[in-house]
Structure formats: structure tokens, C-alpha cells
Amino acid sequence: MAIPPAVLREMQEVGRDLYRLALVTSHGGNLSVRDGHGMWITGTGTMLGHLEARHISFVHANGSHEGPPPSSDTVLHSTVYALGGVDSVVHAHPRHAIALSFDTDLFVPPDFEGQLHLQDVPVVPLGPTQVEQITMALQSRRVVLLRGHGAYAKGQTPWEALHWVTALEESAHIAWLRGAGRQA
Length: 184
Ligand SMILES: [Zn+2]
What we know:
The protein is of the alpha+beta class.
């Protein structure tokens, strides 16, 4: 099964942006695009900044896959798609957002853009129900944080999901700088 060129290009470009914006390490993060009852998803441990067709797996609705071993987050992606209304999911490690996630259950952006786009961002604790909690939170929010780990964003396209990850990190960076300013 060959990945459609337009899907490949979109995943390559968004993966490259995630890496170049320092939102993932060289081998971190993952992203997927829904395709009918299945999805295209990055393989486990692939480099998002250097994606080729051979790094992307197709996962069928029954869980079987073609191509490389799919991301370890595959169940989360497929659970989000099963609930409907979403065509792409992006997972990244935005550092300021992760730093803030340790000490709050809900990140409220202090800036206009963040409030406009994100409203607020639930922080899900690590644990056996984290997949269910992230999936449920994404029903009403564009992006969710997993405490001490990273962000999961949804979109109609990978570009839209990238938008919410970058908006989150910008707001978290502003919140961080604001905290430092208050201490000065
Ligand atoms: Zn991760």
C-alpha cells in the first residue's frame, strides 16, 4: 500500500517544522493522518525532521499494519479517530509547556493568542488511564498535555494540529518568562 504523495508531503513538512522548531528531539514525537477507516502514522523511533515513505506505516481499523512498526502511541491515535471529527493527530515535546505541566492540572494561557485559540489546556497525569483521559479531553480541546511528557493536538490537517502545538508552546514560554519577570 503506497502513501498518497500529498499525504506524504504534508507529513514530511509538518514533521520537519516540529523538529526545526525544537518541539521534538531528533527521534521524538509522532504524527498521523486519518485515511478512511485506517491511518498513516510515523513508525516507532523515526526522525520527524527527515521522514520518507519507508518511515510511515499504514494501520488498518483492525489494528494490523503495513510498513514499519507504527508509533507506540498508535492506540491513542486510533482511539481519537474512532470518536470522529478529527483527521490528524500530532504528538510533540514542547519544552516550556512540559516544564509547566508538572505543577498544574490546567494550563491557562496568559496571552491573547493562546486564550483565543486554546482557551485552556488540561494536564493529564501519567497512569493506566492516560490514553482514555487524553482522548476524552481532546473531545472539547484542541491540545492536551501529558504531565512531564508532552502535548497531543488534533486537527483537520497536520498543519492545524501543528498550529495548536506551536500556540501552546508560545503561551507556555510567555507564562515562563512572565514568572521570571515577577521574581526579578
Ligand atoms: Zn512523547
